[in-house]
Every structure is written in structure tokens, then in C-alpha cells.
Amino acid sequence: MKRVNTDDDSLFANLLQWRAAGKAAALATVVSTWGSSPRPEGSHLAVDEAGHFVGSVSGGCIEGAVIDAAAQVMASGRPQLLEFGVSDEQAWQVGLACGGRVQVFVEPVE
Amino acid sequence: MKAATLTRIARAQQRREALVVVTRLADGLQCVVDAAGCSGELALAPQQAAEAAGLLAGGRSALLAGDERLFARAYVPSPRLLIVGAVHIAQALAPMATAAGFEVIVIDPRGAFASAERFPGVELCDEWPDEALARLGLDAATALVALSHDPKLDDPALELALPGALFYIGALGSRRTHEKRLERLRAAGLGELTGRIHSPIGLDLGGRSPAEIAVSILAEVIQVRYRGAAR
Asked: How confident is the model at residue B159 (pLDDT cuts 50, 70, 90)?
């Protein structure tokens, strides 16, 4: 038996399991960062239709908003490009405490 | 992401192969770039394909140059830690390294040591180290630590590992033990490569217990992975 245990490996194993079980899923990816942001470009967060998630796109400050967007993406089947930063009006709710900015691409998984 | 792309990423990870997925952020169309070239719904200009190939080689993810907003995500083999010797330190090191993102394999032909009771949830290999290493392959994303204290196990592993591409090689043992080991490896014609072996193994944290030594070994492996070998 091959054990999957690294970040990317377990994330894609989860996605495959969810899809095999007939669950809708979405994949979020950090595509650009400015200033000090906690997770580098390429970092993934995978979400299923029940809101279960694996991986991370920040230190925890924007995950909730990304999971909300993922639900919309699963419903519509259309990707979304999100941006978070201290300049947002919602800075105190979903901004990055570290002062950085990130763009996160959220796509449905077929 | 198409189901076929998802399957391709998972398969590449399992085979320890690298690939890049390029996504057009405007509509989510994608293509896959690997050693065989570019395939998928999204067509890349020659310059974009060349840039994606460069990211594939370097294992980096980034937006491609230009106004089109194409994001290239590189998937490279996960770091792997091969532990020779299913000893007490290995029992502590295997779960720690797993938590730190390493694919861990413990190699020991002695069934009493390499048992599922002693290593719950850990991938065990009961082949002799030289057979195991020949089968597993020694790529540049792999580290090897020889912990068995038994030259019958450690030496064949080191003899195969030293000429390999591994990013880290370490061996447990006192200075005197290591001196004797170096003599044997020199006699085997590997004298020029023995400087690659980290011994005494691990960062000098001052710890004495098996778990503390495991922390210092894992810390050194991570340090060398990101900072390169100082020696």
C-alpha cells in the first residue's frame, strides 16, 4: 500500500475520493501575492459540497471567505478570481492581518 | 479542472514525475505541460510554452509573462525520507517526518524490528537496503538516513546512496564509529564521496532521547533541503 502523506498528495487524494463518491468539489489556488502573505503562489485549498476542506491559502484569515466562494463556484460551475488585502472594505473580517494581499482562483472540479 | 487533469496530477505524484498545469484565469481553461510537451484545451504560444517548461524544470509556480493572466502551477515529486534501520530513533522520526510533508519509508530486513506494531501506519520495506534502494530509486528529492548501527545494513545503503542524486545523506554513530565507516567506504572506492555524509547526524540541539535526536535529524534534513549542504 502506498501511503499518501504530503500536502499536495493528500489534497489530490481527497479530491479524487470526493469525486468518486459523487460529491461536488472546488479547488482554490493562490495565484499572486504582494507584500508579506503567509502562503506562496500555488498553495491549494480543496473544498467539497459539505464544506469539508483540506490545505490552505493563508494563515487561516481568508479560508472562510474562500470556502463560501467555493460553494458558489460548485453551484454555478464557473470559476471566480478573488482578491484579499488590507485595502478591502472588509479588512477586519476577511483581510490579511499580516498586511499582504493575495489573489485566489477558485475553480470547479469536474 | 477537468477530471482527466485531476487524474493526471494524481498519477504523476504517484510515479514521482513532474508536471505543470497552466490555467487561464479569465475562463479556467487549462493545459498540462510535462516532459512530453503540452496538451489540453488551452493552446500556449511558443514563448508561453517555453516559460512553462522552465517552471517545470525549476519546480516553481507563477503567473506567465504577458497580459493574458495565465497561471502555471508546478507539481513536483514530494520530498522522500528513506530510513535504514527500524530502530528506536526511527520510530520517533517516521511520524515526525510524515507530519512535515515527507513520504517516509523504513527499510529493515529484520522482521522483529520492522513490524507494524512498532511502526503503526508507516510504510515498511523488508528488503535488504541495497535491493530496496535499487528498486525505489534515488532522485534529488530523496534523503537517506542510516540509523541501524549495523554495518551490514548501513554500509550497502551508503555505498548505493553516495553516487546518487539524493539531497541529503546522514549516518548515525559516534566519531569513532564514523571513522571506521569512512575507512570501509574508502576501501570500497568511495573515498571522494564520503564528505557528503552528515555525521554526527543532525543539528546540535543537545537532546539525548530518541525523539529529541529525531527532531535534530529532521531539522538538519529540512535545513539542507532549503539552504543546501554547508559541508
From this structure: very high
User: Distance between CA A4 and CA A9 in Å, rounded?
Assistant: 6
**pLDDT at site A96:** 59
Boundary (domain end) residue, out of B46, B75, B104: B75
Chain A, residues 22-61, CB within 8 A of chain B, namely: 27, 29, 31-32, 40-42
Distance CA A58, CA A75 (A): 24
- With contacts defined as CB-CB under 8 Å, which chain A residues touch B106? none
Q: Residue A94: its pLDDT value, please?
A: 55
pTM of the model: 0.79
Q: Given B29, B52, B75, which residue is the final one in a domain? A: B75
Q: What is the domain range of residue B88? A: 80-227
Provide the grid cell at A2: 502506498
Distance CA A104, CA A94 (A): 13
Around B8, how many Cα atoms within 13 Å sit in the side-chain half-sphere? Answer: 19
ipTM of this complex prediction, to 2 decimal places: 0.84
| Encoded amino acid at A19, one letter | R
